[in-house]
User: Fold this.
Amino acid sequence: MIDYHPSMKTCADCDTCLKVEWSELDRGGLEQLANSLKTFYYQPGEAIFNQSDAPEGIYCIGQGKILLCQYDSFGNEIGFGMAYQGETLGWRSFFARENHTATALALTPCRICLVPKSTVHRLIRGYPALARRFLRTVAKDRGPTESLLLRNPRLPARIRLINLLLILCKNIYVPNSNEELRLSLPMNRQQLASLIGVRTETLSRTIAVLHKEGLARFHNREVTIANHDHLVYESSRSKR
Assistant:
């Protein structure tokens, strides 16, 4: 069951608001935002929204990691991207006035704020800078780029897995790329395989290859990366 909590009405002090599109609002706009949004808490495996649902507004990720996936006609989960704390979700379907084409699943405990569509429309009318900021978000959407890096059939599974590790590394601080880096995977092996478009058996063999090469060691959901720069080098070789 998803817990609902009224907003704490502190958008002006929220780190997420200061990072995303709502940062274009002045204090009056942030008060309108805070007075209308709803805050939900999700446990791993719960859906923030489902494929084919009608959009209810725009979501702000205050905490947690989210898997973006689609389901085929047989009910198979096909992951194609991730979203993180400090990002917004659902704006593509909202602005297109279409049902969601993907499902957003919580991978970790998440705190999500939903800005209702009536509030979004009102704020965009009142703050042209907000509309321009969302236009930039659409233009810079990394979804197709990540999908090509992770699921491109022309890339071997080894490179796809390396690309995924590098994408996950972008969301943690790397003080010295020549030192060992420990990474906690927010997804299980089946979801990991789905993200790079391979079977779980292929994923297991690929993990063994990276271990043998000394690039990464996997233990359950913990990954030890021996040298971040080596991963970057191996990924860049595939682009030559």
